[in-house]
Amino acid sequence: MSDLVAGADDAVAGRRRRPGPLVPMLRVTEREARIWTRYWQTSLLSGVLTPLMFLGAMGIGLGGLVDDARGPVDGVDYLAFVTPGILAATAMQAAAGNSLWPVMGGIKWEKQFHAAAATPISPGQVFGGYLLWGAARTALNATLFVAIAALLGGVPSPWGVAAVPAAVLGYVAFAAPITAYAALQDSDVTFPLIMRLAIVPMFLFSGTFFPVRQLPDWLEPLARVSPLWHAVELCRGATTGSLGALAALGHVAFLLVVIGLGCRWSVRAFHARLAG
Amino acid sequence: MSALPSRSDPSPLDDAGPGDEPLIHAKALTKKFGSYVAVDGVDFAVQRGEVFGFLGPNGAGKTTTMRMIACVSPITDGELRILGMDPRHHGPAIRARLGVVPQEDNLDTELTVWDNLVIYGRYFGLPSGVIRERAAELLAFAHLEDRRDSRVDPLSGGMKRRLTIARALINKPDLVLLDEPTTGLDPQARHLLWERLYRLKREGVTQVLTTHYMDEAEQLCDRLVIMDEGRIVAEGSPRELIERHSTREVLELRFALPDEQDAALPHLEGIGERVEPLAERVLVYADDGDAALAQVTDRGVRPHSALVRRGSLEDVFLRLTGRSLDE
Asked: In A50-122, which ranges are continuous DSSP H helix?
C-alpha cells in the first residue's frame, strides 16, 4: 500500500521521507509567519511599545516616587522590580489575545484551520503550529523588550537573558488552555468576560506591580496559584538574578504542568472541532 | 497546456493490476452523531476518471459522507476504503492525495490570491519551486491571473470559489471532492465554474461532488446516487435514472386557483403514464408531452399555463422520495 502513496506526487516522491509530527506542524507556523510579514511593523510596535509605555509610566514615573518614599522593593529599585512583571503580564495578554478570537475565527468564522486539517496536517498539528508561532513571536517581542529595558536600567543581572524563555513559558501556559477553551465555544460572548474577570485581575494582582505579600491574607494564596505569578517570579528571578535554583525549578514545573494539561485539552478540542 | 492536475501518468502499481480498483469503496457506511443517524449504511464505489455525484436535499447526509471520504470525520460503522487505504489508519496519507473544496470557502482572506496557493502548497510539503510553477498554472486555470496580487477579501463569490478549487489542485490530487460547488453563485458564475470542472474531467481528474441542484447533477455527473434521509435511494447515470424513474417528457399544468386544479384532476386520469398533483401545479408524465397536452385540451380542461419539458432528475427525485407530493 505504501507504494501507492509514494506514487502520489511525483514532486514529493523524490524526497519522500516519512515526516515526523513536527514537520507538518511547522508548516502551520510558516503560514502564520507569512501572514505576520504583512504587518510586522504594527505587530512589533504594539508588542514592544505597549509594555515600554507601562515601563515608562510605572517603572520610571511611579518608580521615582516609590524609591524616594520607601527605598528598594525586594532589594531592587522599583524599575527593576516592575520590568519582569510587565514582561510576564504582557506575554499573558498576548496569549489571551492570540488564543480567543483568532482561534474561534480559525475554527468557526473563517475556518482556515479546517482548510489546514483537510491536508496531511492533523488537527493536533494545526494547534501545535499555531501555538508555536505565538511562542516564537513572544520570544521576539520579549527579547526586544528586555534589551530596551536593560538600556533603561531595568535589568540589573546578566541572568536577564533567561527572562525571555521564562516569558515564553508563561505565554504558552496561558495560550494552551485558553486555546482549548476558545476552540470548544460556539460563540465569543464569554470572551470579553474572560478578559475582564480573569486576565485583568491576574494582570494587576499576580506580583506584577507589587509583591503578593502586600495582598490581604485571604487573597495571597489565590495569587500564588495564578500561572502569571509563577511566570512573574521566574522572570523577576532572572532579571534580578535573585532566584534560587529550587524555587526556579518549582515555578518551571508548575508552568509545565499547566502547559501539559492545556495542550492535551487543546489537541482533543481541535480533534473534536476539525475531525469530529 | 496540460496544466493541470492530471493523473494520467500511470504509476507502476496501476500497470500491476489494481488500476481497476475503485478509488472509493464504501460498504454499509454509517455515521451517527449520538442517536442521530446521519448516514445510514450506504454502499457505493467511485471509479478512476469519473465524476460521481451525491444528489439530495439538505440534511440527506451528503456532506457527512463527504467528510468521511475526506478523512476528517471518523466512520461509525461499515467499511470505507479510499485510494486503497483505510481512513482510520492512513488519514494523512489519503489526505495528501485529495483535493477538497468545502461548502464554504475557507481561504485566507487577508492574504493575496497568490499567497493562498503558496501556503496551501506548503501544507502538502511541496518544495517552493514546484509550488510556484503549479500556482502559476492554476491561476490561469482559475482565470485569476490578473488578480494574482490582490487580496482575497474583495473578490467576487465566483472568483473565491475558483480560487478554492485551484487551491485544492495544488497537490495534483487523485481525487477532488467538491461539496456544493456552486451554491450561492449567480448563474453566470455557475456556468463558468461548470466549464472549469468539465475541463478537469477532460484531463482525467476523478471528481466527487454533492449538490442539491438537479441541473448541476445532470450537467456534471457521469454517475450519481440520490440520497434521502441518510440512505441511497437510487444509483445510475442521470440518463438511466430519468429513463428508469421518469418519462421522456413531462407536461406541467398550472391553474389559476387551487380549486380549479382540484376540479381538473379527475379529468386528467389516464393521460400519459402518470399524473402527479403538486401544491402549485400538476405534472403529467408522458413520452409525448404535446400529445398529452392535446388530450388535456380535448377533455375540456383549461389550465392557466401549460409547459412541455424533458424529464429531469427532479422528477426522479419526486418519484423516489415522494417529497413535496400532495398526498
From this structure: 50-54, 63-70, 78-99, 101-104, 112-117
State whether A30 and B125 contact (CB < 8 Å). Answer: no
The pLDDT, as a whole number, for residue A177 is: 98
- Amino acid letter at B126? L
- Measure the CA–CA gap between A32 and B40, rounded to whole angstroms: 40
| Same-domain check for residues B266 and B172 | no
Q: Give the angle A205-A208-A209 at the CA atoms, nearest 5°.
A: 90
**CA dihedral for B229, B233, B239, B242, sign (positive or negative):** negative
Q: CA dist B69 to A178, B49, B72, B74, Å?
A: 31, 17, 8, 9
> What are residue B210's phi and psi, to 5 degrees?
-110, 150
How many Å lie between the alpha carbon of B53 and the closest alpha carbon of chain A? 20
Using alpha carbons, select from A246, A96, A112 the residue that is nearest to residue A172. A96
User: Both B62 and B203 in a single domain?
Assistant: yes
* Residue A9 confidence (pLDDT) above 90: no
- Strand B282-286 to B231-236 pairing: unpaired
Report pLDDT for B19.
53
Q: For residue A67, which amino acid is it?
A: D
ipTM: 0.89
SS3 (DSSP) at A76: strand
Nearest to B106 among A4, A15, A115 (CB): A115
Cβ of A275 within 8 Å of Cβ of B97? The answer is: no
Interface mutation vs chain B, best among A2, A5, A108, A274, most B CBs within 10 Å:
A5
The chain B residue lying nearest A123, using CA atoms, is B72
Residues 6+ apart with CB under 8 A from B136: none
H or E segment at A26? helix A22-36
Q: Is residue B318 within 8 Å of residue B55, measured between CB atoms?
A: no
CATH number of the domain encompassing residue B113? 3.40.50.300
* Cα–Cα distance, A93 to A145 (Å, whole number): 15
When CB atoms are compared, the residue of B73, B110, B123 closest to A275 is: B73
A18 pLDDT higher than 70: no
Residues of the domain holding B276: 247-311
Task: Kindly state the greatest CA–CA separation across chain B.
Answer: 74
Is A24 in Cβ contact with B95 (below 8 Å)? no
Q: How many domains does chain B have?
A: 2
**pLDDT higher than 60, residue B179:** yes
Residues B289 and B207 in one domain: no
CA–CA separation, B146 and B162 (whole Å): 14
The answer on pLDDT for A212 being more than 90 is yes
Q: How far is A269 from chain B (nearest CA, A)?
A: 14
Cell of B193: 465554474
> Is residue B181 domain-shared with residue B152, that is, in the same domain?
yes
Give me the half-sphere count of Cα atoms (radius 13 Å) on the Cβ side of residue A21.
8
Length of chain A, please?
276
Facing B11 at nearest CB: one of A7, A19, A118: A7
Contacts of A232 (CB under 8 A, 6+ apart): A84, A85, A88, A89, A170, A206, A207, A208
Distance, CA of B226 to CA of B42 (rounded, Å): 11
Same domain flag for B208 and B264:
no
Pairing relation of β-strands B223-228 and B231-236? Answer: antiparallel
